[in-house]
Amino acid sequence: MTVITGPTALKPERDWNIGWADVGPFLALAALMVIGFAINQDFLSATNLGNVITRSAFIAIIAVGATFVISSGGLDLSVGSMAAFITGITIMFMNRMAPEWGVAAIPAGMLVAVAVGLLCGLMNGLIVTVGKIEPFIATLGTMGIFRALITYMSDGGTIPIDRGLRDAYRPVYFGTFAGIPFPILISIAVAAIASFILYKMKYGRKCAAVGANEDVARYSGISIIKTRTIAYAIQGACVAIAAICYVPRLGAATPTTGVLWELQVITAVVIGGTALRGGKGHVWGTVAGAVILELIANLMVLSDFVSEYLVAGVQGVIIIIAMLIQRFSK
Amino acid sequence: MSTTKWIAAAAVSTMLIAGHALAEDKKVVAVSIPAADHGWTAGIVYHAQAAAKEINAAFPNVEVVVKTSPSATAQVSALEDLSAGRKLDALVILPYTSEELTTPVKAVKDAGTFITVVDRGLNDPTIQDLYLAGDNIAVGRNTAKFMIDKLGGKGNLVVLRGIPTVIDDERIQGFQDAIKGTDLKVLDIQYANWNSDEAFKLMQDYLAKYPQIDAVWANDDDMLLGVLEAVKESGRKDIKLALGGNGMKDIVKKVIDGDAMTPVETPYPPAMIKTAIYMTVANLVGQAPVRGAVKLDAPLITQENAEEYYFPDSPF
């Protein structure tokens, strides 16, 4: 983890200096792959890596949004519940429209998902900025609200997608383009757009400036409220995109969908090199962080060293070691 | 109906009943259960409500009141609220936790209420007049027996566990005891927390790790849904059986339809709350003796008897 300071954010636009924070997560990723291969040759098989990276797409996409929020000095605990809520709304909308619109209900449902995501994000943002509530508390509140809404909508059970739509929608998760699964392509696209916004657009620099030092940013004429609110809205849109990829996987939303995703998302962002207290965000690092988390879980199953009772503990140790290596090798 | 709506409804009807009970000397049966937060508890809520509706219609002098609580603390408060205004003739309770609910239930009992405990026992078994539960060991054992028969006593298995709890331990224990001495080999066993998504991932990993898997056992149907999706996606043909447990309607439907990979199901049915309510009312109304402990078996659900366990309108 790099210490992010004000001057970092004010670096000239064309600075291509690559620091440890940019490379660190990828080195960790490479190390993990080597270890994985040493433990089990199947680890690097195309199917296994394809599965794992595809699976990490939800967390990666949401975490890209979280990079904006965290970089601007905020935090969003509601993303897991929000993903479940958006998934539920999307499925209900598609099911309602399926008899009239047929397969066209799918793209329409996707638009609804993004709209709902933006609104949810906007709500979080306004509560934090205009309402001036600590992000931790504000999003803890909305986390409960979204979770309750999905439980209410499903009567505690499941909201399955219409059978007629299921097969048409399946390829969004299981399909491939040029041999690469769609969710991977979508997360790469999301990360590419995000890094353009964060590194090449004025908004990105405002974001980092606000996160690095609120007072300095305010004196420089940056609107804190606007910058942070937009970050939460971006987060909402990312959650919606993740939900769109998620629906076809199991074809249902339940009250346990997305439970604890928020912690995985925050962990991915931090492993990726973005400081939790705000400052410069590392979009590609975040994506690497999400893949690392999923690889560790995969490795736990593929290796036979660890008792099933200790898996979570070993995962925790690996994450902490990874962070320590990043810190001390600077 | 949704939880909130019917908490409200329960509150309103509680007030109405209190009035009625005095006027007509109705026998009041309070049902205290966890709020629906996943498939199985959603089933509990559904069946408790169904039982209340049926009994209230059938017996004019009995009023069944259902109250759900989202946590152990809330359930303690609910017990206080239920017993505050009037005398309860009976209480049917599925406790959130054994520790926290034991004393509050004892207090209700001391006021002269008949106590029926469902599924999770209290710390002091002398409090209950009737105890009714499923048999988690049988869930594991009967599934294992079917697998042994079907696979001819040998094959490679992978198992998915739930959340580390007594329920999970018992199911796994029943399963492992039953396959002892056979040539069925458990290649791997890991926790997937009774969650479809985690089960999907774990099954993908199992498939990557083992080239030959004959059968999968997910000790809960939510997990089985994830397993089936992962198997379908992999295109692997070596998996002959993928079994679950609990009695989710989607899985029972598969059994009815004669699914090749999931031809049977083992119940740990949320409908047991209905059995408990009916038995309690039988004691109040018909003077039928019910005191004791009842353990529902977990007989295999096959194509022949599946209709008995199929509740298409239930959320679970």
Describe the structure.
The complex is a heterodimer of chains A (330) and B (316). With 330 residues, chain A is mainly α. In chain A, 72% of the residues lie in helices and 2% in strands. Chain A has a single domain, classed as ABC transporter involved in vitamin B12 uptake, BtuC (Orthogonal Bundle). Chain B is an alpha/beta fold and 316 residues long. In chain B, strands 2-1-3-4-5-10 form a six-stranded parallel beta sheet, sandwiched between helices. Chain B has a four-stranded parallel beta sheet with strand order 7-6-8-9, with helices on both faces. In chain B, helix 4 (98-110) links the parallel strand 3 and strand 4 (114-118). In chain B, helix 2 (39-58) packs parallel to helix 10 (272-286) and helix 3 packs parallel to helix 4. The longest helix of chain B has 22 residues, at 3-24. Chain B is elongated and about 65 Å long. Classes of the chains: A mainly alpha (330), B alpha/beta (316). Chain A binds chain B through residues 40, 42, 45, 47-48, 51, 55, 151-152, 154-158, 160, 174, 249-252, 254-257, 259, 297-298, 301-302, 308-309, 311, and chain B through 1-4, 35-39, 41-43, 45-46, 161, 164, 188-191, 194-197, 200-202, 204-206, 208-209, 222, 225-226, 229, 233-234, 250, 314-316.
Question: Helices, strands, pairings?
Answer:
The complex is a heterodimer of chains A (330) and B (316).
Chain A: H1 6-9, H2 20-39, H3 46-55, H4 57-71, H5 79-101, H6 105-129, H7 135-153, E1 159-160, H8 163-169, H9 171-174, E2 176-177, E3 180-181, H10 182-200, H11 202-212, H12 214-219, H13 224-250, E4 252-253, H14 261-271, H15 283-302, H16 311-328
Antiparallel strand pairs in A: 1-4, 2-3
Chain B: H1 3-24, E1 27-34, H2 39-58, E2 62-69, H3 72-84, E3 90-93, H4 98-110, E4 114-118, E5 130-133, H5 136-151, E6 154-161, H6 166-179, E7 183-191, H7 196-209, E8 215-218, H8 221-234, E9 241-243, H9 249-256, H10 272-286, E10 292-295
Parallel strand pairs in B: 1-2, 1-3, 3-4, 4-5, 5-10, 6-7, 6-8, 8-9
Helix pairs in contact in B: 2-10, 3-4, 5-6, 7-8
